[in-house]
Amino acid sequence: MEKPFKIGIIGAENSHTAGFGKLFNINKAFPGMEVKYVWGETEEFAKTAMERGSIPEMVKDSNDMLGKIDGLIVNHRHGKFHLEPAIPFIEAGIPTFIDKPFCYRAEEGKAFLELARKHGTPVTSFSSIAHSHETFDIKEQLKEVKDINQVVRYGPVDLESEYGGIFFYGAHIVQPLLYLFGDNVQKVQVHQNRKNSSASLIFKDGMLATLVFTTKKYGWSTYIETEEGIVPLKSRVEE
Question: Which domain covers residue 46, as residue numbers?
Fold first, then answer.
């Protein structure tokens, strides 16, 4: 790259902020790109992210990064805080990645995307699990499997999470499912019994997906019904 690409991050409560710093500044995964600034919900959050992610500068007001960065990351634990602070940067044409969940309410998200289109500003948001080598490999495997009627997917979700209920971790269980089997869901029903919960998704082709929201163990797994019985979908590539 001809000149360094400077990144600013809004939000430091989430451990992802230090992770982004490590990715760019310590591991140098993308040469020429650096997380230069961070704004934290508290000074303590910001300083912790700076230390662990080798981020050099903290700003007191997120708008202080305007005119100083080439890219923005917004990263709060609760999705309701994601869009509003990004608006000045969208209006300034700064490419923006918004960590999951993209937003907390659909209306707000649609208005934000309309604003981004108006200013020609690239915006993206996604589950890192959906965009992984493992998920891509499973997608390839599914090309050899026909007539899947049932899918069961497990993953951590707390419908009563203080960080937005299903929105906090829901992207990690839902988005890979849609990537693997298509985003043609017609009906959704959520079942809740205190801490135990699940969801049923009916696809246009008749396929039924059952999501089991786990609360005791971290991790995701997917199973499908085939002629041989219920089999796990496992990646052949290293994590």
Answer: 5-124
DSSP string for 162-188: TTTTHHHHHHHHHHHHHHHH-S-EEEE
User: Which CATH number do you get for residue 208?
Assistant: 3.30.360.10
> Across the strands, what pairs with 223?
152, 232
Token pair for 156: 């951590």
Say how far apart CA 91 and CA 114 lie, in whole Å: 11
pLDDT at site 46 = 97
Query: pLDDT tens digits for 155-202?
Result: 999 999 999 999 999 999 999 999 999 999 999 999 998 788 999 999
Q: Give the predicted TM-score (pTM) of the model.
A: 0.89
Q: Give the CATH number of the domain where residue 74 resides.
A: 3.40.50.720
Joined tokens for residue 39: 């704004």
Give whole-number Cα distances, 5 to 27, 31, 70, 158, in Å.
16, 9, 6, 37
Q: Single out the residue of 23, 51, 21 nearest to residue 36, CA to CA.
A: 21
User: Residue 1's pLDDT is what?
Assistant: 54
Answer whether residue 130 is part of any domain.
no
Q: Which residue has the tokens 């790109």?
A: 33
Q: Look-up: residue for tokens 């995964």? A: 29
Residues 79 and 176 in one domain: no
